[in-house]
Fold these 4 entries.
Entry 1:
Amino acid sequence: MVRDKLHREYQFADFVHAFGFMATAAIAIEAMGHHPEWSNVYNRVTVDLTTHDAGGITAKDVELARKLEALAARLAGV
């Protein structure tokens, strides 16, 4: 938790892997209709999750965090 948001910084081998993570995650994110605050700098992707309408972290944030963790683990193994 950072500033009342679920916070995670992912590091990948290079920019292509970091961007690939974001592109792949975007499909699940759009399907959920629940969009993160995120940014990419070279091989790093920073993600903050909160549900603005609810004023804090909800089950949707936890679900998305789990999906992102699973995807990052899968891509790290490539």
Entry 2:
Amino acid sequence: MSDQAAAGPADADATSAERQDQGAAPAAPAGGPRPLTGRAIIQAITEGSPAVITILAFVVALVIGGVLIVASDPVVLRAWASFGYAPGAALAATWDSVSAAYSALFEGAVFSPATIAAAFHGGSIAAVFYPLSLTAFEATPLILTGLSVTVAFRAGMFNIGAAGQWIGGALVATWLGVDVSLPVVVHAVACVAGALVGGAVIGWIVGEIKARTGAHEVILTIMLNYVMYNLLSFLLTSRAALQAPNQTNAVAPNLAPNAMLPRAGGPPPQVGAGFLIAVAAAAVTAWLLSRTTIGFRFRAVGASPSAARSAGISVERVWVLAFLIAGALAGLSAATIVQGQTQPLTFNSYGSYGFDGITVALLGRARPWGVVLAGLLFGALDGGGTLMAAATGVPSDVVDVIKGLIVLFVAAPPLIRLLFRLRAPGGAGPQALAPKGWTG
């Protein structure tokens, strides 16, 4: 009995070391928080949080955004300078400034009562739906890059390379749209398929290197992003490659009209078939992750690679497949932009879609339909922020701050629970990453 008792701590240490070598998170002390490892962060994201946390996070972000709106309005600041003897005027000026800004944000993203009233008196019906069209247009690439990040999350990996995968898809779609002649519909479908393949190849490179060498996917994707940035710059400035004729700027030729996706919903930018592609991709991704053997393997590897390997799952193959699918989704995002807008591919076309996809996946709790809703929210903020800035003079950066705050509060539920004195739920979850004092 004494020999067994003496061997117990040593065996436990060996087991813990073995778990760490195999990539599993070390066991947390009894009653304590889980160690803050990469895998624990991903599990916290995918486990999700109650809907009330998301709603309250949005409310708090709007309140803080209102403070920033007031701070950027000189009229309100002058009113507050006389708060001591005219408090009513200061409060009224504050309400007018914040309500005007958020009203413009809503009208630019959802609908404007003025356009509805005008439609009943012979006005344009398209103008009524234009804000929703703009929201869907802005949300489309975000949904697809968010799905790209989500697939990697489910397999226990970080995909920081959606930007590079986006470029891979954009290059193939542009080449097919410029240099290949095909009939109507067939040409557009071929370009979409080419974008999917182009992004998938870039994602496959990351998964293959990780599977063969064990290199961390974050390093691989970041470095490959820079490779793709420079490749895009080279191709767009080479007359023998993708540079438009008689141009000195880094710009590709216009795609053939047959290669463009159909659009509708008022003056440009317009929502089009790209939004339907994004919704269909979300449906397929949801089915893949929750209803198929592949999705089960992704979840098993994401939870514990060592346990999945013991169950006979090829972890390396899952890594490759997950990044291949993630790259394909990012490539589809490129197709919706390259084929869905009038201007050709430039060096700045990839924008911040790849990195915004990370925040969309975080807000959507790495769930496909949650990503769709998060993408629509961010699309509404982007679309409405343009009108807000034009109508009220509020800096558009306020919208970026609001988006960042929403993600911050959703990703850290203990902050919301602390602010609103909410009781923390039992069991594991995102709150398990925080000290006990924050979760009650």
Entry 3:
Amino acid sequence: MVFDKLFAWRKKKKIVPGISFGRYSDNNKSIDKVNRWTEGDNLFKQQKFHESLDAFFDYLRDDDQQNIVYERNEKEGRFHFYQGSKIVRGEFNEKLLQAQVTLARMPQPSVAVMRRLLEMNFNLYYGRYALDGDRLCMRFDSEIKTANPNKLYYGLKELATKADKQDDLLVDEFTLLQPLDTEHVIPIPEAEKEVKYSFLHTWIKETLDYINTIDAEKFSGGIAYLLLSLSFRIDYLLTPEGKLLHDLEKIVDIYYRKDEKPITDKNNGMTEGFKKIQDLSQAQVFPFLFRSKHVFSIVSPQNHKAVADAVNNAALNMVWYRDNNHSFIANKVLEYGFSFCQYSYSLPKPLSDLFRLFMHVNYGDYFRALGYSEILYDPLLNRFDEEGIEQEIEEIVEAWKKKYLKLQLKVKNLRYDSLVSFNHTYITEIGNMNFDA
């Protein structure tokens, strides 16, 4: 009874800071937004090109983020939108649509920089790198009569996502380049940066220390799971940008790169990558911790079968570790299955929300340090807030029932006798969900 009263009081005082997690997913469109894409396509076929653009940019706009500004009159219009640290600006008239994004300032000519841009041009399908005075840019343009929604989506996506990735990398590699056009980036409080920096070190140290206690050959598979889940956790919970994100992606690439190296060598490579990140000072990490708006996801949607396969395989691969008293590895294997999907796919919003709940249960100390009041799992007492967890699941599912008519997660199948049991049953039910419209 006392415990129930405590939780009832806590729920009244629930605090949820406005902190976003993970990579932006554009796989979160409402039915009305999806209909706008269809309208735009039909209007284009009717040669109502400007009306088609109205519908297209309305489809792209995330009303929660307000990430697009679009306006036009009868003959011309203009737009700009945000993608991480970059702003894409564009305009159109009755003949042409043009878009441009500034990468950096180059105060004096550099053969090395221009050679690099020329090389990168070969990897672009729609846009191109350009020099406008002392500004390095990327550009995309299209005749209005060929600017159908599909071409615009992939052209503007390439422009935005490539620019957001390359600006920091170019500035870091070529010291003569200067950052430009980043005033829109939203700074985060110093206290939040300190929490993220602290947990960055805590999680890396915890993982590497544990790895040092087990046999590198015998547990090579388990070690790979530990390092990959660590990568995906940092990516999701800390949401790094710029070079820090790039360094993290390079660690992940070591494992998934198609080569003949044994897993032990790949593990050593990932470990060395984490040691380098561990050596970074606050001054080196803080510039890459900020909030920003996005229009495009950097990864693509997948059908739910890909998610189900990933979490179900993780559940199978966890069994040996659980049954042989390696619960730390078992939990990270289960985390890997779900976090791999969050990292690799543009997930539907309800699935992203369910992943956030999963991480809140598993890393409650981090969420509390950020200011969240809910204690969904107390590891010292091995006690779950079953009511709170199931209520949040219900709220997530109900919010998206209009779009996914068969959506449900069977909370009756969740087990709360241990963290491994909860994680196992939770991701199993995630795999069983039906995202058919």
Entry 4:
Amino acid sequence: MKFKEFGLNEKLLEAIGYMNFEKATEIQEKAIPVIMEGKDLIGCAQTGTGKTAAFVLPTLHQIAEEAHNGIHTLVLVPTRELAIQIDQQIQGLAYFTNTESLAVYGGGDGVSWEQERRALSHGADIIIATPGRLISHLNNGYVRFENVRHLILDEADRMLDIGFYEDILKIIGYLPKKRQSLLFSATMAPKIRKLAQQILHDPLEISISVSKPAEGVTQTVYMAHEDQKTPLTKHILKDKDNFRSIIIFCSTRRKVEQLTRNLKRSHYNAQGISSDYEQEEREKVLLDFKSRKTRILVATDVLSRGIDIKDINLVINYDVPGDAEDYVHRIGRTARAETKGMAITLISSDEMYKFHRIEKLIERELEKLPPPAELGEGPQWETPSPKGKNRRSKSNFRKKGNFKGRKKGPGKKPENT
């Protein structure tokens, strides 16, 4: 379906044409008419399916067609990176309109705080915000949400994973009860459905390719001991000179730093990014990667969802993600919008159970390759049992002295982001 068939505002169509967009993706084709009709919506779609434009385009259409005062639309997102990316996409699509948008997120200076305060009190058309930062502004009493007509929650599952459930409900308490509400999530876990029941009214539900890798991703798996992963990563990279954009995902910030240093010593054009970086530094690293100044980006899962970086040739999972669905989001960085891409995962003996869960989720068993002969033998794949895995995990924690005092629970930010 072509965008001109949706009945969108002419200035929006002009911007779409200028950006060389012509044919809508599946989530756009199904969601845009529903949103333009004013109905509440649950959209379940993995990263790379075009869901940002699926809610941005009808929102911009409504702003162009409706008279309004103050803030028209509030978009809640889990991370500052996603807030910035959505704001940039809005600015591109709204280029020929008078729509104003602003990303509200932590990590900035006093100047950015003052800019956010003015927008929240005097009214930009669209506010894209992380819950924590927005709560800080709400507590100061100047935020004007009485005219908000549309609420959008993007990456709702990740917001709940981080622990924003109560913050989301608190923010919604400031909004008019009569509004259109949209919830987008990569998964439909029970906690997402519970949230949807609380904030949506008689929603339509659209589900697109839930928890399955994109068709264009070639998935390769190597068995490797921990001390083999870095040399194996270099082995993978050495014949990929024609790959211009590569992302490597590590499980911890320390591994990001170690691998980045190692790659730089081997003369690879690589940069690392994690939550240890200051906001300005993170933005610069992302900009350099997007503009192809940096070829290899080493990251924690701060980048696994929501960041719109096009034409990624290769994703390497240096570590198997703890959440099976995060595997889909990680490799979703490549093969976006019907392109081709490659994803390679390195599995140690302690990660076999995690990858077994991934195979169950994607309903596909992948061939497990050995490392190159010069790196020595890797671990042998065994289909582990959950019971056995649980015993090993506790034993390993005690051995490392980390088991005592470790706490899990809702609301605690993951240590490795």
